[in-house]
Design a protein that fits this description.
Elements: H1 4-23, H2 28-31, H3 42-61, E1 73-74, E2 77-78, H4 86-105, H5 126-152
Antiparallel strand pairs: 1-2
Helix pairs in contact: 1-4, 1-5, 3-4, 3-5
């Protein structure tokens, strides 16, 4: 039976790959267009997810310094640079996923993050952080389904 840490990693891997696979069905033009009223694009969501994992686990849980913890945000919205292609962003998201797995598998779920700038008040346990990440990924996987359906009709 896998450990609880391995179960969290498995679910995060599943949701990450599901979103990548869904967006992989879109053309480059569709990846750069918003298909929703709020205005975000599939490329922006991919970048956002890599930063979410980094913010919660590296900056928050481990207490590591991050030069730009909110580097996925500009002018109060998600953004990507012109040179950030689907392949580049998928590579960054997958690399962050490997880093997430190392962190999660290397710690106990009851371990608590150190006090720092990421969390106000009592720092959360790794388990609480992982529950947050799972719900965020599940929500965004649903968003990916809707965007692909709107873009392709499939």
């Amino acid at each position: 039976m896998p450990s609880r840490q391995a179960l969290f990693v498995g679910y995060l891997d599943y949701f990450r790959s599901t979103i990548i696979d869904r967006f992989g069905t879109l053309s480059p033009a569709e990846l750069s267009l918003s298909h929703v009223k709020s205005g975000w694009t599939p490329l922006e969501l991919l970048k956002h997810l890599a930063f979410v994992e980094r913010r919660w686990l590296e900056w928050g849980f481990l207490g590591l310094s991050m030069a730009e913890p909110w580097g996925d945000w500009r002018d109060d919205r998600w953004h990507v640079e012109e040179e950030e292609s689907f392949e580049v962003l998928v590579g960054a998201l997958n690399a962050q996923g490997r880093r997430t797995s190392e962190i999660v598998l290397g710690h106990d779920l009851h371990d608590v993050s150190p006090p720092g700038p990421r969390f106000k008040g009592e720092p959360p346990s790794l388990e609480r952080i992982l529950f947050h990440l799972l719900q965020e990924y599940a929500r965004h996987a649903g968003h990916a389904d809707i965007v692909v359906e709107q873009a392709t009709g499939a």
